[in-house]
Write a structure and sequence with these properties.
The chain is an alpha/beta fold and 336 residues long. The chain has two domains: 2-125 and 276-334, Quinone Oxidoreductase, Chain A, domain 1 (Alpha-Beta Complex); 129-266, Rossmann fold (3-Layer(aba) Sandwich). It contains eleven helices and 16 strands. The protein has helices at residues 44-50, 119-123, 126-139, 161-172, 184-193, 205-211, 229-235, 255-260, 271-274, 282-295, 312-323, and strands at 2-9, 19-22, 32-42, 53-62, 67-74, 86-89, 102-106, 110-112, 152-156, 176-180, 197-199, 217-222, 236-244, 263-266, 303-307, 330-334. Strands 3, 5, 6, 7, 8, 15 and 16 form a seven-stranded mixed sheet that branches. A six-stranded parallel sheet has the order 11-10-9-12-13-14, with helices on both faces. Strand 13, helix 8 and strand 14 form a beta-alpha-beta unit. The longest helix is centred in the middle third of the chain and has 14 residues, at 126-139. The mean pLDDT is 96.
């Protein structure tokens, strides 16, 4: 099968950062699906894994943690899918990735593809959808179905992939969304997705949020980096909670959190698959729920840019776009 892989961890401007290779087609076992990959998207985690380091792989390593495609074959223990089903998923960071014609993935972390979306539109969604959904509804305990309607959430880094779907999930749950954006195009993007208010995260945010009439907010989601930690602590309400996806080495003073009896929650969407948790199947359920919401017209794809075909040149181009830090929504690469 065709695949895009690496053996050395190189800067993205190095033409050998990715290689077009031929690899054996995998075989199914257990609860695995063999998926014929039709489109993939690139996330910041891809660029972090590929970032320069001394390590050399003995055999080509395939990255990629977002895909849509068609089930080619199903393992003997599979109960949720059958060959021919159209699916979307983010996969497992401990296994071979989606930048290949065929990929093995556990059915418990796979969802039925939204019927109303193309493969490219669907591939933009899984990793960021799982991240945002788990951040809000599992980590922060917000009620998905509207019992917490009217509460406020500050989404820091709202124009990126996670933020773009998070705005929509928060609005569907009835929350008041304060989104951050620093450029005219990302401000327009987050408003289009449903943000009630927009503040600039490159300017002091406490004053901007309070000028909107919010002394504190009920929830804070940090979806870019922890440079904004002290702002988040200042703005979170007493007994509120902050969720973050950033594995930072920056200082995180906790005195303000203690004073407010506030909580810090971490979100890492690969945790369920990595540790084979008893509730792994929740990712299947949430992806299928969001697909139904999309088909009902309540949530839209966050696709912004499509490259074609899936090859080393275009994967490298997608990584380069992500590394600028200027991307909005998602970048998808489709078709081998």
């Amino acid at each position: 099968m065709k695949a895009v892989a690496l053996t050395h961890y190189l800067p993205v401007d190095n033409p050998k950062a990715f290689l077009d290779v031929e690899l054996p087609k995998p075989s199914v076992a257990g609860r695995d699906l063999l998926v014929s990959v039709r489109a993939i998207s690139v996330n910041p985690v891809d660029t972090k894994v590929r970032s320069p380091k001394e390590k050399i792989e003995d055999s080509p390593r395939v990255l990629g943690w977002d895909a849509s495609g068609i089930v080619e074959a199903a393992g003997p223990e599979v109960t949720l899918f059958k060959p021919g089903d159209e699916v979307y998923y983010a996969g497992d960071i401990t296994r071979s990735g989606s930048n290949a014609e065929f990929q093995l993935v556990d059915e418990r972390i796979v969802g039925f593809k939204p019927k109303s979306l193309s493969f490219a539109e669907a591939a933009a969604l899984p990793l960021t959808t799982i991240t945002a959904y788990e951040a809000f509804f599992d980590r922060l305990g917000i009620d998905r179905d509207g019992a917490d309607a009217g509460q406020s959430v500050l989404i820091i880094g709202a124009g990126g992939g996670v933020g773009s779907i998070a705005i929509q999930l928060a609005k569907a749950a009835g929350l008041v969304v304060i989104a951050t954006a620093s450029r005219p195009e990302t401000e327009s993007w987050v408003r289009e997705l449903g943000a009630d208010h927009v503040v600039n995260h490159r300017q002091p945010m406490v004053e901007q949020v309070r000028a909107l009439g919010f002394e504190h907010v009920d929830h804070v989601a940090i979806f870019n980096d922890m440079r904004h930690w002290e702002t988040a602590v200042e703005l979170i309400r007493p007994q509120g909670a902050i969720v973050t996806i950033d594995d930072t080495d920056l200082p995180m003073p906790m005195a303000g959190m203690k004073m407010k009896a506030a909580s810090l929650r971490w979100e890492f969407m690969f945790a369920r698959a990595m540790f084979q948790t008893a509730d792994m199947i929740e990712q299947h359920r949430l992806l299928t729920h969001v697909a139904n919401e999309i088909d009902a017209g309540r949530i839209r794809t966050t696709l912004d840019k499509v490259l074609s075909p899936i090859n080393a040149e275009n994967i490298r181009a997608a990584h380069a776009l992500i590394e600028t830090g200027q991307a909005k929504g998602k970048i998808v690469v489709q078709s081998f």
